[in-house]
Amino acid sequence: MDKIRALVTGVGGAAGVGVVQSLREKNIFTLGVNCFALTAGFKLAHDFAVVPLAREENFIPVLLDLCKAKKINVLIPTVDEELILCARNREQFQRIGVKVALGETETIAKCLDKWIFFQELKRYDLPVAQTWSARGECSVSKLNFPLIAKPRMGRGGRGIRIFHGPEGLGDFLALGGDYILQEYVEGEEFSVDTLADFYGQGLVAVPRKRIEVKGGVCWKGCTVHNEQISVAALEISEKLGLKGPACMQLKVSKAGEIKFFEINPRMGGTTSLTRAAGVDIPYLTVKLLMEGTVDPAELRFRKTYISRYFADVFFTEDELPQDVEGELGLL
After folding, report:
1. 48-68 pLDDT tens trace
2. Domain boundaries, the chain
């Protein structure tokens, strides 16, 4: 593993930072990339580069050029908007000796689209929060409240609205936009970090209780041994055909019902807690890519708590890769 050189995207976010920290601890070279120059993760990676946004035409060509220039052999995307693009261009990366830490394009698309995700879980009779498409396929008078309106392809809690009754919902839906409506489950919230091998066999599911959440980010939490959640998460992983890491979200209702409502087919923002508990998902993902197997002992975890705080990194002017004042509109 000492010859592994990994390119990690999105090192301005918690998931990317967590991957870099994990791989550095294992003496794996990391090239951290992000679309902004003023990025904390640049200080944590061995090397860094600014790349275009995923929606820009030169995103994949720039990644390919970086992989060739820096002798990269593993690509780990951590940003939702990049996942389908990187998976779709997997063969281009493979031709230059780079393995992509993602599953199949079709599977990723099913996970990112919350409406399709709901339909898939219903098809397999798996536990999922009741969901409706907001595109004229539901009658407001027949809905149960409270409920949540979410962008069908959203992430990070952006654009979410909670409705405690029908008042205002009709006007909101009339504004347009591709939304789903989902039952609001009263109860404890969990995330589950899962890992499957690259043949689709689920290996481990580590539930994390979200004790304190701010802006969609877990600030306090703990890993828990809950067989019911772990079994359900692994079943979802295998039924959907997930490969590599994923992060699922669910609630356990006051009546004890498990209701999954979201899945990210990539590493989660609090994968660091799972790593501290004993299951180093970023490292194991690389190990699976390069060696095909992991030791069962590496899949065991202990109850561990997390309490987050702000940490500061500083750049001198000559350390930044481009004119950051122009980037931030300070000129």
Report:
1. 999 999 999 999 999 999 999
2. 5-103, 130-183, 186-307
